[in-house]
Amino acid sequence: MSFRTIEWTGEKLILIDQTKLPVEETYIAYTDYREVAVAIKTMVVRGAPAIGVTAAFGVVLAAKELLALEAMKTGGDFAAGLEVAFATLAATRPTAVNLFWAIKRMRGVVEANEGSSPTEIYKALERESRIVYDEDVAANRAMGRFGAGIISGDECTILTHCNAGALATAGYGTALGVIRACVEAGKKVVVFADETRPLLQGARLTAWELHTDGIDVTLICDNMAGALMRQRKIDAVVVGADRIAANGDAANKIGTYPLSLVAREHGVPFYVAAPLSTIDFELSDGSAIPIEERDAVEVTHPGGVAGAPEGIKVWNPAFDVTPAGNIAAIITERGVARAPYGAALAALRAK
Ligand code: MRU
Fold this sequence. Notes:
Elements: E1 6-8, E2 13-16, E3 27-30, H1 33-41, H2 48-67, H3 70-73, H4 78-90, H5 97-112, H6 118-150, E4 155-160, H7 175-184, E5 188-194, H8 201-212, E6 216-220, H9 225-230, E7 236-239, E8 243-245, E9 250-253, H10 256-265, E10 270-273, E11 279-280, H11 297-300, E12 319-322, E13 329-332, E14 335-337, H12 341-350
Parallel strand pairs: 4-5, 4-7, 5-6, 7-10, 8-11, 10-13
Antiparallel strand pairs: 1-2, 2-3, 8-9, 9-12, 13-14
5-S-methyl-1-O-phosphono-5-thio-D-ribulose (MRU) binds next to helix 2 and strand 9.
């Protein structure tokens, strides 16, 4: 891969600006965690694992800022200062559970180091954020290997939705990690990428990523996937997830659920690739997954140009929930879960 989605220099957090892709490949350097929160909210960085990793580095920037305060040298409350940063970062996007998972993990480091000096806590947080980053890349590579193992045949045509690639993670990708691993295993892979209205993550990001990597990719509008499957041109659908409930119901980019229905109708296996950090074991099913609703302008102004009557009413949920019953397998870094997912996911967690 020729780009880095997230880079920590030890001083700054550098993010590729995903709002500018594919027209411009630009990078923004962050030293203020509040700006990192804005980057998550405005989708400079997006994709569940990438949001989690970014938040972890945001916490490190907050700790760095606190450390420089005069008050910290005279007994100021470092942990209380960090709580403000946790709350700011948590208030950005509600659906991807990786965000809350990462914040909880960073809070755990603070708690485990209670009584240590602010400098010691800062060092522990910085160490942890690097581990969160490395673990994400390793998880994606492991998911890729497991996923490639269940995609049958030496030749396969895979449909994907949104962007669950290197841009949505610390590197390699979840769904696109499975595709990359298939290619690395010597399979001849053809990919169809849904454009993914309204923000076009499929057209702008997935098509860019795969095309840049030399992987055979064809872009389609979202409403073309059904016709493709009816013509038996798709061997498998592979998507990522933003939050998976304990029973396997999976929230992912809006439009994933109808894709799962068409796949079921045509007997096409529908796979979800996601790390364990995306599984919310506290939710028994998908009905309680909070679904983010975004600004109407994303729908009314495609590409920033008015495409609907002024003042029109708009509904713009960013995600939908695919019921576990439509999912042939959930691919994680610890192995492949199949229905019944409650038991299978719990077993992978305990592994
Ligand atoms: O709104 P986004 O672009 O953050 O949504 C991203 C998705 O829905 C991805 O498919 C999901 O986060 C999985 S990423 C590995």
